[in-house]
Every structure is written in structure tokens, then in C-alpha cells.
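Data card: per-record layout.
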Amino acid sequence: MIKRSAWALVLPLVVLAAWAQAEDGGIEGLRQTGKAFSAVAKRAAPAVVFVQVEGRAEGSDAPQDVWPFHDDLFRRFFGEDFPGLVRPAPKTQRRTLGQGSGFVVSARGDTAYIVTNNHVVANAERIRVKLQDGRELDTQLQGADPKSDVAVLKVAARGVPVLKWGDSTRLDVGEWVVALGNPFGLSNTLTVGVVSATGRTSLGINDYEDFIQTDAAINPGNSGGPLLNLDGEVVGMNTAIFSKSGGYMGVGFAIPSNLVRAIAEQLIATGHVVRGYLGLTVQPLTPDMADALGLAEQSGVLINEIRPDSPAEHAGLRVGDLITTFDGSRITDGAHFRNRAALAPPGSNVTLGVVRAGRRLEVPIRVGRLDEGMQASAAAQALGIAVRALTSAEARRLGLRKAVVVTEVEPQSLADLAGIGPGTLILEANGRPVGSPADLDSALAQGADGVVLRILQGGLSRTLTLRWR
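The structure for this 469-residue chain is written out next.
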């Protein structure tokens, strides 16, 4: 009884001690995590800058003489000065102020190069940066790439710390990341979160997208600032938020460091960006398509157009080929393939893994230069759309011999205003059947003032006339 009583007294003390030790261990773990974040901030913050932008934008004063019955009848009989008619206000120039963030990626002698978002500095008349040591300096735009939303500033400054690039392909979902910047103009702000997802595409933010999604708070003013791993390396550039209120809602997007670095290095070296060109267009492989084509593969992209005299044609690629790898790396979707092709240096050789009629092929292809190919089709310029040819499976299912399907529509473009949306089929242009983007471009070239389109939308065929003059 005495031993049992003694054990009854000792056991609670043992449990209490173990609980206290576990609690101390948990608190100590949190302390170490906090110190890791502090170490990143101390190491990286001196290389993060506050970007101030001055520019001008066109605006107008509010219209005058608003009256319910302003129409052409009153203008015809009473003239433009009749009270109640809305007279358009004259256009005026107003001064604009903007702000964002940036970070130093290179320093050579008395010159430093700062990376930021293109949308932070677009149309700027004056750009100033404020360093953490208090210096405020005028900068000049070294170069910008609106398609990737990357810009580089050049500033005369000595003794500026430089951030180290990290490898964004090594990021894992759930990994800790730190965002530094100047949200709402509040300088030297650190927020912490995790990588929520990688490879986010088709968001409509940039032409070339491969975003890192994070819950580290990103707000207006954070744009252009670095996203860092716990080693203090840049793994992304904070660019956009998903928000219904204009503020943080737990979803932010950063451009991967590998993409930012590739663009920035070209801008620093030459002031402009040159992209690779293969001369083909692709579409995602869906499970239904894989079944219809008898493919065992469930990932990759299908070639739906090969442009004449292009690197793709010279390499022997064919419409209907399934591209599964790019230089040994698995291709997940069309945006991923497009990014890889665009970043491939012109003149270099790459190898595409292809499945053709059940056979696996390794196809070498010499990369061309995009500005030697078709950067923007006539359809994209004139109508504000992007199109692709129908696949053979889609053509059989729809009972069509020729057509192109609209994949993208620019807001407020001629096509958008006419009610054309993604998924619309274009059957004819100016009386000519169209079976490829090249066919549409050729038909558009015949019309000096506009185009007559026959489209199929919602199962109904109709004819539209669109004029751009």
C-alpha cells in the first residue's frame, strides 16, 4: 500500500514535468522560428527599396448641363448649346503618383540594378527609389518587359547590398516564405506565410504566367518586392493579389525567381528581351481527348498548328503530336510549355519528347527568335482575339470540316463588343472558310475596313460585320 501510494504521488509529478518540458520545447521551437524570420529580414531588408513614381494620365472634367432628354432631336432643332444637352468635357492632363517595391539584384562599381514590376513603373515620367539607409535617388528605366511584368531600374549608388537568387523550381507547397516590401507606403514591412501552390497559370494577369501562390500578406505597394525563402534567397517577385476589397484576403501571387532572373539578366545586358520561337501552337490534353485519340498518356499538350517554314516544321513535328517533355522536364499544360519555349535562347537546341501514333520519339529542334516569327497575328491585333484550329476529334464531334475556336478575347475589343467569347467557332471570314489561325489572318488581310464573320455560337450560326475604321 505504501509503494502504491508513493507511486500515486510521483506519477502526477512526472506527468507535470513532462508537460512542462514539452511546453518549453514548443515555445523554444517558436522562438527559433521567429529568429529565423528575423534573420531573413536583417539580411535582406537593406537590399529592398521603396519605389516612388510620378506620371501623367489623361482625364476629363464631369460633363455639364445634364438633362433627361439629351438626344439628337434636340441637337437638330436647337443646336449644341441648347441647355440640357451633355457636352463632352475637354480632355485634361492630371499628375499621378504611384508607389511600389523593388530589390537590388546587381551592383557594379557605382551602378546598381533594381528589379520591380513593369506595372509599377509603366508610363512614369520620374522614378525615385528610397534605400533603407535613407538615401533617395532618381533612377532611369533600364528596360521593361510588359509580357512578364518585369522591369529593371538603373541607379547611381555605391555600397548597396545585393540579394541572392534562389531556385524557384525547388519550392515545395507548405514551405515557409517571407514577403518584404512597402504595402500602403509603409516601408520595410515583413509578412510571413507558406507556399500555397505553384505553377498557377491562366489568371489573366500577364502574357507569360507561372505564379507562386502564397498566403504571406501581399497588399498594394508590395508589388515588385521579393518573396524569400528562409535562407534569404529570392524565390519570387510579389506581383498581384486576389481581392474583392482591394486588400489582403489570403491569396497572393509572385512571379517565380527563375523567370524573373532570366528576364532581368536580358534587360540589364541589352535593355530588351528576346524570346525563343518554335512556330507551333498547342492545347491541353483532356481525358476525353486522350480516350478519343487512343492515348495512354494523361498529361502533355497537343500540337494543333505548325507554321510554315518554322523550326517546328523543319524538325518534322506534326499536327496531332503529343508533347510530353521539354529537355527531359515533364510538360503539364500549355502555359508551362509556352514559358519553356519562350525562355529557350534563340539558336540553342532543345529536345521534345513526343508521342505519335503510340510511338515515343525524341525530336531535336533548333530554337528560332520570336521576332522572326509571328509575334502577333492580324486576328489578335484587329479583333482582339486569339484562336486555334479544331482538333480532328473536335471536328468529328461537331460535324465540321473547318473552323477555328476563339480561346481568348481582349476586354472592350471589337470581338468583345460584338458578343464573341471564348469557345465561339469562326467558320468563315470575308466569305472564305477558315481552318487555322493563318487562314483567318489571310482573310483579314483582304479587308481594308473590316471583316464579315460567320460564327457558330451556342449551336446557332450567325453572320457579323466588324469594322475597325
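Known properties of this structure: The domain at 378-467 is CATH 2.30.42.10 (Pdz3 Domain). The CA atoms of residues 382 and 468 lie 7 Å apart.

See the next section for split statistics.
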